Amino acid sequence: MGVITFINFFEYNWQVRDEWFDWCNQLSNEELIKDRTGGVGSILFTLFHIIDVEYSWIRGIQGKEDVVVEFADYDTSEKVKSLSVRFRSEIAEFLKTNLIELKEKVVGVPWDEDKYTVEEILHHLIAHEIHHIGQLSVWSRELELTPVHANFIGRKFKSSHSY
Amino acid sequence: MGVITFINFFEYNWQVRDEWFDWCNQLSNEELIKDRTGGVGSILFTLFHIIDVEYSWIRGIQGKEDVVVEFADYDTSEKVKSLSVRFRSEIAEFLKTNLIELKEKVVGVPWDEDKYTVEEILHHLIAHEIHHIGQLSVWSRELELTPVHANFIGRKFKSSHSY
């Protein structure tokens, strides 16, 4: 059975996310926060939601209290990107720790009545972001814009130390 | 650094894919093959494409010749599902082998001029399917239908031996 490191998927997601922030620069803020069909509603709220969910679960794994962020305070692409940068450095630090020892640990969080292992939660976060990015790609084509390329192969990743 | 097994993500993708086949039953074949904005075009072609790409790369990793399948021969949900079942058993067998030994192996395939490691290709296949499923979820809402739930957490997976 093959084993892989989680970090590759997180680095992929972070790289693609940053490319979506660049992509956002071609649109007005009105278009970015406009309600759309499917997903969580708007392009910018999708990016905010991905970041919020990732950070909340990573804090949950660490037994830290949830930090509630409100979209009303992060309603421009610049603000959401700065939130992403801020949370990411903390997440990258955590992902450098020895997750093998943690992966069977059972975690409970205030926003979910069930408990999950750290391994399940990390899988969830990876799939969660990729899924929502797939939704952005459809909205992009509906706006007659080329979406960010989603391929995993052909990308170069920084070492996690760069984050 | 955490390590995870690839099989969990493949099982997640296969379970979600099967739920999308069930979801397809509420639509006419005309709706399923109708061209839509974004992604690879239609709901059914998306599912066909995911299956084709997964199988082609897994055969490529094994050094086996590519099997070309034409969508014209698989233009109903039943036919695409049967293709998925057929290919999956072969893929599941391969994923049971010791991928740790293989992961650094460099693979070249006829449809891509670059070469990639087995590890990169397996990451690519996992992200590829999740991304396209995200696209289906938007089209589903545009059809005023509830999409298949995409959460990783809260799912029960069969052992890979069941496939």
What does the largest sheet of chain A look like?
A: 2 strands, antiparallel
Strand content of chain A: 5-15%
Instruction: Look at the structure and give the CATH class of chain A.
Output: Mainly Alpha
- Ends apart, CA distance between termini of chain A: 30 Å
- Give the largest interface: A-B, 50 and 50 residues
Shape, per Cα inertia axes of chain A: globular
**CATH fold name of chain A, please?**
Four Helix Bundle (Hemerythrin (Met), subunit A)
The total count of strands of chain A amounts to 3
Question: Which CATH architecture of chain A is right?
Answer: Up-down Bundle
What's the domain count of chain A? 1
Spatial arrangement of strands, main beta sheet of chain A? 2-3
Multimeric status of the protein: homodimer
Low-confidence stretches of chain A are none
What name goes with the CATH superfamily of chain A?
dinb family like domain
- Which secondary-structure class do the elements of chain A indicate? mainly alpha
Helical proportion of chain A, percent range? 55-70%
Mean pLDDT of chain A: 92
Element pattern of chain A in H and E: EHHHHHEEH
Written overview of the protein:
2 copies of one chain form a homodimer. The first copy, chain A, is mostly helical and 163 residues long. Chain A has one domain: Four Helix Bundle (Hemerythrin (Met), subunit A), CATH 1.20.120.450. Helices cover 56% and strands 8% of the residues of chain A. Chain A is built from 6 helices and 3 strands. Chain A has a two-stranded antiparallel sheet with strand order 2-3. In chain A, strand 2 and strand 3 form a beta hairpin. In chain A, helix 1 (6-24) packs parallel to helix 6 (118-142), helix 3 (43-61) packs parallel to helix 4 and helix 3 runs antiparallel to helix 6 (118-142). Chain A is globular, with a radius of gyration of 16 Å. Chain A starts with a strand and ends in a 21-residue tail after the last helix. In chain A, 39% of the residues are buried. The mean pLDDT of chain A is 92. At the A-B interface, strand 1, helix 1, helix 5, strand 3 and helix 6 of A face strand 1, helix 1, helix 5, strand 3 and helix 6 of B.
